[in-house]
């Protein structure tokens, strides 16, 4: 069993702690949070012990790997500490919100070459990973269009938006990573535009809650992403890949796939999964499995720090495009 310390005890910390505790090949050794009471809430449920500092967690010889699920602004500090201690790391996305600090993360990992995985969990969704394999195997011929729809039921609290780094770096970055991963290439230019149509407080911060992005790939393939922080029918998550020999789509998920007919309705289906934690529940479990498999097999994890830098560079180019109203070449 691999002994793991989870840094952070918020929403994502809870997901990781629960998945580690439930995994037959892992053991939750500790949960780290300067707020010990918060950490204890998770250890009371999932086992392990609460600790208040990264130094205490990393000094424990039972800790063989670290999962970082703390606020983005702390990632660099904790990556430095864990890497210097020789601990493999699974870190929630993004590495950071600016390229300079992201490059510092890469420098740290070059100096201390521990196994490192970035938490782009949607790669590990069964439908999405099957689509990626089909596209890369040539099932639909030459990729022409790649389209991603990602619409949330409601915007996050304004306190979260204030420190999120903007819509593209916070949310669209998932779609960006998937598109690059599926296509096997990264865009040479992006054009993005957006509006604030959901929450005026988001607009008052200079951010947006509704966006469309077009990316042009070196091959000529075009990718399109549409995002919105309001969707009355649930968490709408769809991908479509269109090529010279056909098309592949992923479907939204529901609690059941029954189709109902009554005197009041026809072709009726259950509502969509309502939140990303429900929609991507399987992907979080499979993400942890990939991390543990990589450690066991002695290979690099499939979602790397370099992938995180690429996705952030594109997200920042999207924001620049939105503000300038023109196509932008990402600075890789």
From TrEMBL:
It comes from the Bacteria. This is Inositol 2-dehydrogenase. Residues 4-120 form the Gfo/Idh/MocA-like oxidoreductase N-terminal domain. Belongs to the Gfo/Idh/MocA family. It holds the Pfam family GFO_IDH_MocA. Residues 130-248 form the GFO/IDH/MocA-like oxidoreductase domain. Its EC number is 1.1.1.18. Keywords: Oxidoreductase. The lineage of its organism: Bacteria, Pseudomonadati, Pseudomonadota, Alphaproteobacteria, Rhodobacterales. It comes from Halovulum dunhuangense. InterPro entries: Gfo/Idh/MocA-like_OxRdtase_N, GFO_IDH_MocA-like_dom, Myo_inos_IolG, NAD(P)-bd_dom_sf. The keyword Oxidoreductase applies. GO terms for molecular function: inositol 2-dehydrogenase (NAD+) activity; nucleotide binding.
């Amino acid at each position: 069993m691999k002994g793991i310390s989870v840094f952070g005890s918020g929403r994502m910390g809870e997901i990781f702690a629960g998945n580690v505790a439930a995994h037959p090949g892992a053991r939750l050794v500790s949960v780290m949070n300067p707020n010990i009471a918060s950490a204890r809430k998770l250890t009371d449920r999932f086992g392990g012990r609460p600790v208040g500092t990264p130094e205490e967690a990393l000094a424990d010889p039972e800790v063989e790997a670290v999962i970082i699920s703390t606020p983005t602004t702390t990632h660099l500090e904790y990556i430095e500490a864990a890497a210097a201690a020789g601990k493999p790391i699974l870190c929630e996305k993004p590495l950071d919100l600016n390229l300079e600090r992201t490059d510092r993360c890469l420098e740290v990992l070059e100096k201390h070459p521990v196994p490192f995985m970035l938490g782009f969990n949607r790669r590990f969704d069964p439908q999405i990973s099957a689509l990626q394999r089909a596209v890369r195997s040539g099932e639909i011929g030459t990729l022409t269009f790649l389209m991603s729809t990602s619409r949330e039921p409601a915007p996050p609290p304004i306190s979260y938006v204030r420190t999120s780094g903007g819509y593209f770096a916070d949310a669209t970055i998932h779609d960006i990573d998937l598109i690059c991963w599926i296509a096997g290439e990264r865009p040479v230019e992006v054009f993005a535009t957006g509006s604030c149509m959901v929450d005026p407080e988001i607009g008052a911060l200079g951010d947006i809650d509704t966006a469309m992005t077009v990316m042009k790939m070196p091959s000529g393939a075009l990718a399109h992403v549409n995002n919105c922080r309001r969707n009355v029918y649930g968490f709408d998550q769809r991908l479509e890949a269109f090529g010279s020999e056909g098309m592949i789509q992923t479907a939204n998920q529901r609690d059941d796939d029954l189709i109902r007919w009554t005197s009041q309705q026809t072709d009726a289906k259950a509502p969509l999964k309502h939140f990303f934690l429900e929609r991507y529940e399987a992907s979080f479990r499979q993400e942890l499995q990939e991390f543990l498999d990589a450690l066991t097999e002695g290979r690099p994890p499939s979602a790397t720090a370099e992938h995180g830098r690429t996705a952030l560079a594109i997200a920042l180019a999207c924001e620049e495009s939105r503000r300038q109203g023109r196509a932008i070449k990402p600075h890789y």
